[in-house]
């Protein structure tokens, strides 16, 4: 996080695509194959949400929470940082290899996203059933709890019972039902 006094920047790193033995890459940068459905991806999304919430809380604590002080907090992506961000660092070096990884995740060079907007997107509480049944899942969705993102009507329409009834069932039966409708 970088506070320039006028703007707050939250730098987002990258998700390495494969483990590597390249000596130029540090141990911290090594990773298993990125799997958007795996628990490590879910943890990364949770950490991103926590970082964004922390940035917004920091801004509000510093400037107050009134309409005149709407957060000027922005996300930037590793390798794709805009000049407004990189100009703050006298020895900045671009990394094309990292830019390429983030562009594969549909980020664009120089792109800045408002932290508030991205956090709202990642903390969305309901999705149409069609979005939860297709892959890849939307960012921020916990793949182990897909049924919780359904509206009450969608839940009943897809699982033929309401959420309270479903939650009363034994775990094995809930899992079996989720598998049968594609929510697993």
Q: Structural class, from helix and strand content?
A: alpha+beta
The helical percent reads: 40-55%
Proportion of β residues?
Answer: 5-15%
Mean model confidence by pLDDT: 85
Record field, number of beta strands: 4
Please give the count of helices: 8
Q: Name the helix and strand elements from N-terminus to C-terminus, one letter apiece.
A: EEHEHHEHHHHH
| Rg, nearest Å | 20 Å
Strand order of the largest sheet: 1-2-3-4
How widely separated are the two ends? Answer: 36 Å
How would you sum up the global shape? elongated
> What is the count of distinct domains?
2
InterPro entries: ADF-H/Gelsolin-like_dom_sf, Villin/Gelsolin, Villin_headpiece, Villin_headpiece_dom_sf
GO molecular function, one term: actin filament binding
Domain HP: 121-184
Protein name: Supervillin
């Amino acid at each position: 996080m970088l506070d320039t006094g006028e703007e707050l920047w939250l730098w987002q790193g990258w998700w390495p695509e494969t483990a590597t033995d390249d000596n130029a890459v540090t141990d911290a940068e090594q990773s298993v194959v990125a799997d958007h459905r795996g628990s490590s991806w879910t943890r990364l999304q949770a950490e991103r949400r926590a970082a964004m919430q922390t940035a917004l809380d920091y801004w509000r604590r510093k400037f107050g929470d009134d309409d005149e002080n709407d957060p000027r907090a922005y996300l930037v992506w590793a390798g794709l940082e805009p000049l407004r961000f990189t100009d703050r660092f006298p020895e900045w070096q671009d990394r094309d290899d990292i830019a390429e990884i983030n562009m594969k995740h549909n980020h664009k060079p120089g792109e800045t996203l408002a932290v508030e907007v991205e956090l709202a997107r990642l903390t969305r509480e309901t999705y149409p059933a069609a979005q939860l049944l297709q892959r890849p899942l939307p960012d921020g969705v916990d793949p182990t709890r897909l049924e919780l993102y359904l509206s009450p009507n969608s839940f009943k329409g897809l699982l033929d019972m309401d959420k309270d009834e479903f939650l009363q069932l034994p775990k094995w039966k809930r899992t079996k039902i989720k598998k049968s409708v594609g929510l697993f």
